[in-house]
Amino acid sequence: MGSETAPLKLPIIDFAKPNLKPGTVEWDLVKGQVQQALQEYNCFEASFAKIPLELRGALFGALDELFDLPFEVKKRNVADKPYHGYIGQQPSVPLYESMGFKDAIVMENVDAQTRTWWPEGNPSFSETIHSFAKQVSELDQMVRRMILESFGIEKHVDEHMDSTDYLFRVNKYEGPKTGSETKVGLISHTDKNIVTILYQNDVGGLGIQSKNGEWIDVKPCKDSFIVMFGDSFHAYLNGRLNPTYHRVMMTGDRARYSVGLFSVPKVGYKIKAPEELVDEAHPLLYKPFEHAEFLRFHYSRRDEEDSRSSLKVYCGA
Ligand SMILES: O=C(O)CCC(=O)C(=O)O
Ligand SMILES: [Fe+2]
Known about the structure:
alpha+beta; 7-stranded mixed beta sheet; globular; binds fe (ii) ion; oxidoreductase
């Protein structure tokens, strides 16, 4: 008794402060917290109460509506890049089903995707998805700007922001209905993009691996957005920060819904660490690479390969 240590928790950083603008004291304070959290956990929770509760409620309603469509209809979500369209009915992750909205902060794109499922359109659905993605993209931009500032490379902010699009993905994990026995929802991996921001319903399951290998269970919280660091950002920063290794494990009867906003390097853009981050003490870790090609390579690998090794095998210098 008394020897148990409290379970690890992700740091929570408050982004809802008014006046959180570059150059202010508040900004620099949060920037320091972001840097520290990423160095220690490769991940953090952002409290971003700014997104109205009604919109969050509407989001989960919209997901119910979408996932309830027949498989034949959901499958119409096709994309030319791996991981951008419908994923489901996979033997290795039978509980998982997921769909994507390419370039989701542009309303016309969300509407066009919506019409593949509802040819006559579904304005309240598209409006909910677009509005949610757009508001979360503000958080993504703040985080990325803070990170570039922390490494003294703020002069690259515009080019960096202009080099990415936003993929919005919606996910459903069926409850395994196996009592207290846990089943895999999504296999452990690092995301291959820049930054991923996740939001989830009240059914837990997301786990983040800490630096010492311990899994941290992320407790769903209405105001919290989970900010994860991807392989492409790790390469861009020449290894200064590390990607978030994460997974989903499911128990119980209820379905888990989650959504992710992924900042993704644009097709044709070569990810290359800025000169300022390469020197004798920090030799270049990765040759310049194009994200879509890297994704193709990654998804061509066998399931048994460790997701974390793909970047190094693909373009390690
Ligand atoms: O559903 C989640 O919380 C995680 C989803 C995820 O890791 C992904 O889509 O890459
Ligand atoms: Fe992920």
